[in-house]
Amino acid sequence: MEQLEFFNIPSPCRGVCEANSKGYCKGCLRSRDERLYWLQFSDTQKQHVLYLCLQRRKRLQQLAWQQRQADTGELWLPEQMDFEF
Known about the structure:
single chain; 85 residues; mainly alpha; 2 helices; globular; DUF1289 domain-containing protein; DUF1289
């Protein structure tokens, strides 16, 4: 049974709208299908997509931290990295 939501779940779009080679948006970290069908998703599906985006962002932050630890001389922000899932 789906829980009733009292407020609309807003799109996680950050206005970057640029996809990497795997199709994930560099701004919001949604896949092509997640972006395409956002308005058709139920609130439960939207919450799941938001959870997936959070996990992807955490993975990018971990990669950025590892890159800093490797002392490459350049500091990359997670939004700038071209991630491959």
